[in-house]
C-alpha cells in the first residue's frame, strides 16, 4: 500500500503563484520537515475562508516567533470548488510563501473525507491537524490537543530510541459535546433524531471515548 500511495504523491505538484514553478508534493511516508501541518478541506468557501486563514496564520506566526522549533504549514485542499475558493487560497500562498501555505486542487468534488485524506498524504508535519474552513473551531484551542498528544506520546517515546512524534500512532479529537443541550434546543426534531442515530453508530464503530468524529 505504501508504494502505491508514494507513486501517487510523487506524480503530483503544488503550483507556486509567486514564481510560477511547480513544487513536488511530499509524501506522508517521508521524514517530517515541519512540526505541524494544518489541513483545511474547502468546498465553495471563498467567503468564509479569508477570516479563518487570517486568524489561523496570525496564531501560527505568533507561536513560531516565540518558539523557533514551532514550524508549520497550512495545506488548503480545494475539493473541486465552483467559486473563487482557489483564488482566495492562492492569495495567501503569495502573502506567506509556498513553504508555509500550499493549495492542493482536486479538480472535482470528492467529498470532505477524501479531501482530508489527500491533505494528510501530502503533509510534512510531525503532527497533522484537520481544521474546518468555516472557522467553527478556533485554532487557539490547538494547545489543548497538543497537550493530550504529548501526554499520550510521552510513554511511547521514552520506551523507544525515536524522538519524533510522527513515529507514534496517536489520534485526538476536539468535541462540542458540552454544547449539546443548546444545540438540541435549536434543531428540528428530525435532525435531533438523525443525529442521535448517527452518534449511536459512531459509538458502536469508533469505540469508547470518541463521541464526536465530525468536529474539526
From TrEMBL:
Reactions catalysed, as given in the entry: a di-trans,poly-cis-dolichyl phosphate + UDP-alpha-D-glucose = a di-trans,poly-cis-dolichyl beta-D-glucosyl phosphate + UDP
Membrane topology designation: Single-pass membrane protein
EC number: 2.4.1.117
Subcellular location: Endoplasmic reticulum membrane
Domain Glycosyltransferase 2-like: 37-145
Stretches that traverse the bilayer: none
SUPFAM superfamilies documented for this protein: Nucleotide-diphospho-sugar transferases (SSF53448)
A GO biological-process term: protein N-linked glycosylation
Entry-linked InterPro entries: DPG_synthase (IPR035518), Glyco_trans_2-like (IPR001173), Nucleotide-diphossugar_trans (IPR029044)
GO MF, any single term: dolichyl-phosphate beta-glucosyltransferase activity
Major localization listed first in the record, in broad terms: endoplasmic reticulum
GO cellular component: endoplasmic reticulum membrane
Keywords, sorted A to Z: Endoplasmic reticulum, Glycosyltransferase, Membrane, Signal-anchor, Transferase, Transmembrane, Transmembrane helix
One Pfam family named in its UniProt record: Glycos_transf_2
Pathway assignment: Protein modification; protein glycosylation
Annotated PANTHER family: DOLICHYL-PHOSPHATE BETA-GLUCOSYLTRANSFERASE (PTHR10859:SF91), GLYCOSYL TRANSFERASE (PTHR10859)
Protein family (similarity comment): Belongs to the glycosyltransferase 2 family.
Entry protein name: dolichyl-phosphate beta-glucosyltransferase
Lineage summary: Eukaryota, Viridiplantae, Streptophyta, Embryophyta, Tracheophyta
